[in-house]
User: Which sequence fits this backbone?
């Protein structure tokens, strides 16, 4: 994150229960079936997901999504 100067203030974490629902229904319509699921957005548009395990490494997958 530091390498691409991505601000930590742009990160939102939402915890879900066993039914994969957020406290305030934040997950409605997000099609979360497995956890953990990381969803990345840019200007309100989904740009990528990491579901359960990364393809390469967590660092590399996040970097690839954030630098698209």
Assistant:
């Amino acid at each position: 994150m530091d390498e691409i100067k991505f601000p930590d203030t742009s990160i939102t974490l939402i915890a879900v229960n066993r039914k994969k629902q957020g406290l305030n229904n934040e997950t409605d319509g997000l099609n979360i079936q497995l956890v953990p699921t990381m969803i990345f957005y840019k200007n309100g548009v989904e740009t990528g997901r990491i579901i359960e395990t990364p393809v390469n490494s967590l660092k590399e997958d996040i970097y690839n999504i954030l630098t698209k």
